[in-house]
């Protein structure tokens, strides 16, 4: 895709995210009823309502669709261009009223996320970007961290993993571990320099991370599975082994920290 096409995609994403705002006006985070899905994860009326809006607005002829809240249509595997969406990433936080959740929309071409957008209605943050366009935070151009070492930096870790003690090995590290919900939101914050790096060695689905990966890549950042391998998106099995994201300047320090994390897992 050329730069103009990706620019048009970013516009489509922005309009779709804006359209979901009206849905959330009918919900108060922290006072939301939730049901349990088959796997035990919570789902709310907001998840499904946002999914319906995005599914109507985004896909065009020839484009595939993969969403956490839609039945997986494997015809997407025949498409070179695919929307990968999580209507509400961080539903647990949404239900609890913790402002660490977002709508996550990613667009993948031949397995590579090239455009993405995130919207956190509770904090009124919009992060959008794509290949050749960089990333905008609430309408203004943003940059990743320029830090060259993790010492003194901030790493966004999983709130649930931290509660299970899986980040305790970094208790005496020279960098801060900041627990947070929604992996999509964490990726977005790293993409705009609000934190220095994020990673998880726990499996995640493509819809959790596609938008955030697009944002990291748009900034020239590095993103890969914990093994170090890049991820090709729109796979038959959408489950990743985990994810690591950071600016190029932190490649050595983050790799060492992730290897340490893996050895303790």
List the helices and strands and how they pair.
Layout: H1 3-24, E1 35-36, E2 42-43, H2 45-57, E3 64-67, E4 81-89, H3 91-96, E5 102-109, E6 112-120, E7 125-130, E8 134-137, E9 140-142, E10 154-158, H4 159-163, E11 176-180, H5 183-191, E12 197-200, E13 204-205, H6 206-218, E14 222-224, E15 239-240, E16 243-246, H7 251-264
Parallel strand pairs: 3-4, 10-11, 10-12
Antiparallel strand pairs: 1-2, 4-5, 5-6, 6-7, 7-8, 8-9, 12-16, 13-15, 14-16
Overview in brief:
The chain is an alpha+beta fold and 265 residues long. The chain has helices spanning 3-24, 45-57, 91-96, 159-163, 183-191, 206-218, 251-264; strands at 35-36, 42-43, 64-67, 81-89, 102-109, 112-120, 125-130, 134-137, 140-142, 154-158, 176-180, 197-200, 204-205, 222-224, 239-240, 243-246.
Features:
about 260 residues; alpha+beta; Fructose-1,6-Bisphosphatase, Chain A, domain 1; D-Maltodextrin-Binding Protein, domain 2; 2 domains; 7-stranded mixed sheet; 5-stranded mixed sheet; globular
Write structural notes for this entry:
The model has no long low-confidence stretch (mean pLDDT 96). A hairpin with a 5-residue loop joins strand 1 and strand 2 (42-43). Helix content is 31%, strand content 27%. The protein is α+β, with helices and mostly antiparallel strands and 265 residues long. It folds into two domains: 3-142, 2-Layer Sandwich (Fructose-1,6-Bisphosphatase, Chain A, domain 1); 154-264, 3-Layer(aba) Sandwich (D-Maltodextrin-Binding Protein, domain 2).
